[in-house]
Amino acid sequence: xxxxxxxxxxxxxxxxxxxxxxxxxxxxxxxxxxxxxxxxxxxxxxxxxxxxxxxxxxxxxxxxxxxxxxxxxxxxxxxxxxxxxxxxxxxxxxxxxxxxxxxxxxxxxxxxxxxxxxxxxxxxxxxxxxxxxxxxxxxxxxxxxxxxxxxxxxxxxxxxxxxxxxxxxxxxxxxxxxxxxxxxxxxxxxxxxxxxxxxxxxxxxxxxxxxxxxxxxxxxxxxxxxxxxxxxxxxxxxxxxxxxxxxxxxxxxxxxxxxxxxxxxxxxxxxxxxxxxxxxxxxxxxxxxxxxxxxxxxxxxxxxxxxxxxxxxxxxx
Length: 317
Ligand code: RIB
Ligand code: CA
Known about the structure:
Elements: E1 6-12, H1 16-27, E2 31-38, H2 45-59, E3 65-66, H3 81-84, H4 106-116, E4 121-125, H5 130-138, E5 146-152, H6 167-171, H7 173-180, E6 186-189, H8 191-194, E7 198-199, H9 201-208, H10 213-231, E8 237-238, H11 242-249, E9 254-259, E10 261-263, E11 274-276, E12 288-294, H12 296-306
Helix pairs in contact: 1-2, 1-10, 1-11, 4-5, 5-7, 9-10, 9-12
Bound molecules: alpha-D-ribofuranose (RIB) and calcium ion.
């Protein structure tokens, strides 16, 4: 008999790699997606929300979708058109949304899901931590209904948007600070692992070979995402966000180290840095399971197999 499904909230700023993370989640029978929430980051909240609706339509995710906050808790909106394009999800054509947006804002939809769920819920957060922090601030009593939060964000040794800070954390460091201090079990897929989670052009073609509509779109997303990273010298496309889903399915393919991680919210040069105590002294109890390495081949295989779950699905584009 199959074990109970893991109830999941997908929170992100899609985004090519967010979309591929959601593809993996929807393809995996281990999960039951209870809600999808957008956050501002890679593009404006209007664009990331529209993208979330289009991705859900493509993949057949029939959970409610709610719009997040238009900017960070204390910071101005950011965007990253160099990475994901002006739409936030440039590349292949996508279907128009087949579902309505929830009347609730993201933190309230998250709260509703937590309140109504019999089992504890896992949150996968692949953008800024704005919605999750707003949830924790507004509904501290619901913390105990969160099983764990699996985050793509940060980097223990370096950043990507600044030398010190990774993009998702830099977009809203105050929110990340609240989440990292929350006491909820955290998995942190930072640049330490995600820059090793590379997919190469031959992987894109293996994905395309599955032959279904979703496989074709995913291969095109990878092509687009790779162009930007190739211009920076990456040998492949770093699949940041799918790591936050993959670790829930196959922790054994990752090297995981526990650290006490703090978020730099001030810092003239280091705002948004994730500072881990790696000295090995007696110190604060670790607050994050930090992903440090990955079996790249196994990770690529996981994604290549996942697209096969969409055999027979076709929507009008
Ligand atoms: O730094 C990587 C993060 O920023 C990922 O979540 C990716 O989607 C990008 O926007
Ligand atoms: Ca993202």
